[in-house]
Specification:
single chain; mainly alpha; 18 helices
């Protein structure tokens, strides 16, 4: 087996291990609330904190063009190491909501050196079939994001701290694995200086803007859906007394199902085209948002779970496709910066969405709030429709 053939599996494994940090606190949220006397709304605040940290981190990385100036593998490793250490600090018994928010913010900041950097490394190795390669990579992110829920679901006999320790250990292992086994790729074109205007210049490209705004619409829905999956399951449980869900395990299944969808979507895009495949996935997820108004009233728990799994599939299937369109519509020496800035702005959108849905649910106690997630896909579909000549890979 050639070295290049093992590069993608290594990047995928490293990405999975390191992105398990993302929802580590969400996987043990009930334990954090009980152990640190947190308010029941702590979930939205802690989720927003890691998103805000990621936003600031990606902005710093983009402005300083770190992904294009320095070895991506080294940046990935250092970020994984620091992120793992801050995640481990969550088990400190003297934590409060303030310290937990700070820790989650710092974890998010260094995730900026993991997720977009991992995509940058993939673009440095794969010019042909990039959509398929990024499909595997984003699939790893999805499963890594869902992983803490699985740990919680199968480790009820152990302390919640074991979930935190395990995710930190995974992140350290993933960072080391990529640093040792993945050198700089053959298609990498290093930037020789820090051009603060680079991250703004890329938006002058109309095709790039179409892909970016499609991605922003997708992000309005994605992380809010992921964050509220456990609450959706609990709401259905409360409405239907005879139902008794294993919420952590089902949360893992629903979120992780999107990982396979990313991979399959990458293969489909090779024959159907990246833009068309992304458009269809975004359209289907929009329909799920609107259908959520009715789904909580169905009496069949199997149908309810099947609906959430389908939603979990289509909500993220287009993510690697948008990243592919972004990477293919900027100069090679600006790919890292372009991917990073688009990620940054996309995650800013998630904070607004998460806080909006959280606030509406707090005051109305209505599950109809999830229909507002359709706003993002609708705007994303409009953005994609305006440009007819996005590169098809």
């Amino acid at each position: 087996m050639s070295v290049k053939k093992i590069i993608l599996p290594i990047i995928v494994l490293a990405q999975f291990c390191c992105t398990s940090l993302w929802f580590a606190s969400n996987g043990v949220m009930s334990d954090l609330i009980a152990n640190f006397n947190l308010d029941v709304n702590a979930m939205s605040h802690l989720t927003a904190a890691v998103q805000f940290g990621f936003i600031l981190g990606t902005l710093v990385f983009a402005i300083l063009t770190i992904a294009d100036r320095f070895s991506p593998s080294k940046v990935f490793f250092i970020s994984a190491l620091i992120g793992a250490l801050f995640n481990l600090c969550i088990i400190w018994e003297a934590n409060s909501l303030t310290t937990l928010l700070i820790l989650r913010f710092l974890i998010g900041f260094f995730l900026a050196g993991i997720y977009p950097i991992g995509m940058k490394i993939a673009t440095d190795y794969f010019e042909k079939g990039l959509g398929k390669s990024l499909g595997f990579l984003v699939g790893a992110l999805v499963i890594g994001t869902a992983f803490p829920h699985l740990l919680k679901g199968i480790t009820d006999t152990f302390s919640w701290k074991s979930v935190i320790i395990t995710t930190s250990s995974f992140a350290l292992f993933g960072g080391l694995l990529l640093f040792i086994l993945v050198p700089d790729g053959p298609f990498r074109k290093a930037s020789t200086n820090s051009d603060i205007g680079t991250f703004l210049k890329v938006f002058k490209n109309k095709n790039f803007k179409a892909a970016a705004f499609g991605y922003f619409g997708h992000m309005w829905e994605l992380y809010t859906f992921w964050a509220f999956v456990p609450l959706m399951l609990k709401s259905y449980d409360d409405l239907h007394i005879i139902t008794s869900f294993n919420i952590p395990l089902l949360s893992f299944i629903i979120i992780a199902s999107g990982g396979l969808a990313c991979i399959i979507g990458g293969y489909i895009s090779e024959s159907m085209g990246v833009k068309k495949t992304a458009f269809i996935a975004l359209f289907l997820s929009m329909l799920c948002c609107l259908s959520s108004i009715f789904i909580f009233d169905v009496t069949s728990e199997i149908l309810f779970i099947a609906f959430l799994i389908f939603w979990g599939i289509v909500v993220v299937a287009d993510s690697p496709l948008f990243s592919t369109l972004v990477a293919q519509n900027v100069p090679a020496e600006a790919k890292g910066t372009a991917l990073t800035i688009v990620n940054s702005l996309g995650y800013l959108v998630t904070i607004v969405s998460i806080q909006l849905i959280s606030t509406i649910k707090e005051f109305t106690f209505s599950n109809n709030a999830y229909a507002l997630l359709a706003i993002g896909p609708i705007l994303g579909l409009i953005a994609l429709s305006k440009k007819k000549k996005l590169k098809k890979l």
